[in-house]
Design goal:
This protein is 6% helix and 45% strand. The protein contains 3 helices and 32 strands. The N terminus and C terminus are likely disordered. Bound molecules: zinc ion (2 copies).
Amino acid sequence: MTSLLDRQAPCPSCGATITFQFAGAKAIVCKYCKALVVRTDRALAMVGRVADLLEIASPFTLHATGKWGGKRFEVEGRVQVDRAGAPGAPWQEFFIGFPETGEWCWIASAQGRFYSTVEVKPTPPLPPPGSLRPGAPLQIQGQGALTVVEVGKRRVVSAEGQLPNVALPGVATWFADIAGPNGVFGTIDYGSDDPQAPIPPALYIGTQFDPAGFQLDSGQPLEQPQAKVAEAQCPTCGGSLPIVAPGTAERVVCRYCGTVSDIKQGGRLEALAQAPKPPMEPYIPIGAQGTLRGKQSICVGFVIRGCTVEGDRYHWREYLLYGGPSAGYAWLMEEDGAWKFVVPINAGDVREANNTVDYRGQYYRFKQSVSASVEAVVGEFYWRVEVGETVQATDYEGSGGIVSVERAETEVTHSLCTPISDGEIALAFNLSPPVQAYHYQGGDYAPPQAKRISPAVVWVIIILVIILVVLASECDGGGGSGSYSSGSNTHYVGPSFGGK
Ligand SMILES: [Zn+2]
Ligand SMILES: [Zn+2]
């Protein structure tokens, strides 16, 4: 039921003609004066003004058209949002309309994965945000088993085009991200009771989707298969720091001088602080690449974490692996020479209750829960890592491995850890086998060479030296490029990254 008056009217702020083209839109950003204009029963009202759009790359552009699941769509608008509690890592969501049916959805992407959500109506009664705890199960009638992933406040920073409804720019409003089994993903938007622009709470539910099924008329693929390495310079020492995942990396810790920087738009680094140098070189050098478990992987970060149990300090080491935009991230973790391969799992597939975890129908029993904190860090990370950052890490053990639940104040992350041999890692990254476990005693780091070396290791070293000598004599000064990696000849993944 749209009249001409509904669809076209002068901007209440600048007088330019603004047009509501999509029936599902209740708000619009004037492209001339950036006024946020909502339609009320009678007329249009300006409720705020948005800031300039941030440069966040995306294949979607305003008014882009295409086909998805056989239906024509148009990109009607986008909104850019930032966390109110920890600003500086904004994200954006696109308002997609289907003109033939009047349906619409939101589309967002994070770490190379795409999500779409639709508003669930009638909106069931929603629990108040104060009652939600990250990691806890959530009951919403008709929505199956859900898990709270994150609870917090966010602010609209900028927007363009038409929108179904949108909070006043700059005003913090509550939201909760939730997940269900089989990739179900959702958001509770708690809206706003601001009398100027009241927005009722709403529930959005959707799933991760395969970008291959999404066709833009421009022909541009949604997926950017090639991760371009951004060349960045450390603001302190000037060292070259290639950013392997420029679209997703948020923080980099200089491998040369330890300067912690945020990665700003366009790959510029903004120095924040100095991190202590890790007391050891990472076994897998930052930048080393290889094929692990059939996937191209590049080691982008190294973290030493620790916890205190009954007065004793324990340490372990974690290597962040990046597998390209679609494969995303994984970890290798080493403690006392034992390695684990750690992959993130969907919070919606994990049910925690009574000291057990049910992950995809398999039970895992409570093993331990520790307060784990970051002690040293180097490399690039998809979150704003810092020394001292602490999470409650709870492990559940079962026949499938260990399900690890890491709970921070506002967020929970889940991962599955399975044993992996150091030989497999050495082979994958073309490294010499690791010297046995580094033992830390009484909280002091004992450098690897200070440890008593077992006779077996001595023999391995002797044999390796012999092999090297033989190889060197056979190669006869042939350059040795790529045959033996010692960290100095590791190279960065260029445009061919990500394969397929
Ligand atoms: Zn205007
Ligand atoms: Zn530096």
